[in-house]
Amino acid sequence: MPDWLITGCSELLTLRGAVPRRGRTLGELGIIRDGALLVRDDRIVAVGRRRRIERLPEARRASKLDLGGRVALPGFVDSHTHLVFPASRVDEYEQRVSGKTYAQIARAGGGIRATVNAVRRALPKTLSERASTHLREFAAHGTTTIEAKSGYGLDWTSELKILCALQQLNQDQPLDIVETFLGAHIVPPEYRGRPDRFVELLVRGWIPAVATAGLAEFCDVFCDPGAFTVPQARRILKAGRACGLMPRIHAEQFRRTGAAQLAIEVEAASADHLEKVNGSDIRALALSNVTCTLLPGCSFHLGSPHYAPARELIDCGAIVALATDFNPGTSPTVSMPMILSLACAQMRMTPAEAIAAATINPAYSLRQHGRVGSLEAGKYADLAAFDVTDYREIPYYFGVNLCSLTMKRGLIVHSEKP
Ligand code: NIG
Ligand code: FE
Ligand 1 pocket check: which of 80, 82, 101, 270 to mutate, most ligand atoms within 8 Å of Cβ? Predict the structure, then answer.
């Protein structure tokens, strides 16, 4: 692998500084104009003004990469995805456009259940190939680290099929994948009417087995009237924590259930969605270390007017992150730039806040902030360059991919020749 001297950054957004970012510090991007980076192997060795970096002795030997006046920033960290699934649910999309709700479709046997049926039938190879294609698309939009959940198998063999596919993908392709066990996505058909028996199986069987085999770092629960209750989620997340899996939770998406308060109680790494939080939830989250991961792609794709109250969360001091929630039911997008556009236009985040919420804060929520999320000496050389001269143009130009180069651990994994 060559060493790189990267120059030609009209703006180099380093994101150096406090971790995690809260309140006013969320918008501090640590911008260096006419910035440069020196990369050795998979790491950043030096970051600063071009004049200084070019004079370093190692810079002379390094291969030169001139970004031609583009904006460079840390690769996006997408901290909530359901990466592995075999097919779209485009029929449901059309039904929703014609007036059916997500809940009506789920009650009729569609929704998550439809994808579960498809995963159970799918060959591991089919799942991996599709996920690999998506990973290339993630990279092409500037993402270099993603979290990925199980939860579309919901029998032991099929959950393993997903988790093992993720492990293999983590080895075979360049992006870093952080795995989450979401055995508690919905109550599987075999346990219909007996949810507590299924919770028992998760707590006594699957969660310890996943942790022992090192198949996941986090444990997640979908806490919603169509899925699991707060007491059930509490049992599951506590069992996960007892085995070393840190909690994450799908909270307050369609209905307010008290899941955000549970996230605080179990010291979850992240509470995700939060479209339906109230004022006391916001104040409590702001006083906690739980990252509030907002997923505006869901509201957009479902045609819902309910976006999470990003402004209030930020202004109260909560740790806010953004993610795609890439999945076939509520948010079929791999594009973090599109998520930034939604965050700005629909949730009133500033472009600077949106960028920090897509890099350093999600890195913190995945406990990867020592390695990724900012461009600082010692961290992985994970960066994305955009074909703009002002970083605010990244969310401004929506629906077009302006990411012209993505580097992951010093390797160019996406390049659009100028
Ligand atoms: O994060 N809310 C639960 N899980 C996904 C939706 C999954 C699906 O519809 O397939 C979400 O929105
Ligand atoms: Fe999700």
Answer: 82
